[in-house]
Amino acid sequence: MRAINLPRAGVLERIIRANPRIVTIVTGPGWGKSFLGKELARALPGSTVVEFRNARSAEAANARLAEALAARPQPPSGFLILDDIDELAAVDPEGTVLDELLSAAEKHGRIALLSRNAIPLDLTRYAAPHEVLSLKRQDLELTAQESLSALSASNEPREVVERALELSGGWAVATLFFSRLAREGRLREAVEN
Questions:
Q1: pLDDT at residue 32 above 80?
Q2: Which of 1, 35, 156, 160 is the most exposed place for a label (fewest CB within 10 A)?
Q3: Residues of 25-59 as b/e, b for ≥16 C-beta within 10 angstroms?
């Protein structure tokens, strides 16, 4: 099966250009925060992704974190990217793990926090306001050009592709779905329905 190209160069460039100590990416499912975290790790050598999805206990979350921290270069480079921190918060309701990480930011390097829900922390306790970059759903919306690029394999008429772009509204998961339908020759049927 052919891999789908979902270009995120614009938002990656924004993060790299801002050069923050802490990045937060907060948005609901399907907007590409996990994908973006992995792209950020590829773009900046020395970055590490720690996924807390399905961490059923504080011990499991701590084990994942310890393994990732042990593998990071010293001194750290790139980002320590913590994906699904809402699941970390569920097993660590006091926020001890996250507080320790952010408090020792110099030791761990730059940190990216990816979450479905608002992060209930005053991040300016850990970094100056200009060193914190907060991205929300509207920042992760695909541009028209990015969406069009994802649908570029389509041989559909222009009006069908434009309707798919309108319906997707920049939502990454919808754009990927329409891209798949286009490759299967079913895009017209989908956008007309």
A1: yes
A2: 1
A3: bbbeeebbbbebbbbbbebbeebbbbbbeebeebe
| CA atoms of 159 and 86, how far apart (whole Å) | 40
What proportions of the chain, in percent to the nearest 5, are helix, strand and coil? 50, 10, 35
Rg (CA), the chain: 19
CA distance 76 to 12: 20
pLDDT average, residue stretch 95-114: 84
pLDDT in tens, 37-79: 999 999 999 899 999 999 888 889 989 999 998 888 878 888 9
For the entire predicted model, the pTM comes to 0.82
Nearest 5°: phi and psi at 26?
-120, 115
d(C-alpha 65, C-alpha 62), whole Å: 5
Torsion from C-alpha of 17, 18, 21, 25, nearest 10 degrees: -100
Q: Which helix (H) or strand (E) element contains residue 69?
A: helix 58-71
What CA–CA distance (Å, rounded) separates 39 from 42?
5
**CB of 114 within 8 A of CB of 33?**
yes
Tens of pLDDT along 134-143? 999 888 888 8
- Residues 6+ away with beta carbon under 8 Å from 50: 64, 65, 68, 80, 81, 82, 83
Q: Mean pLDDT, to the nearest integer, of 141-168?
A: 82
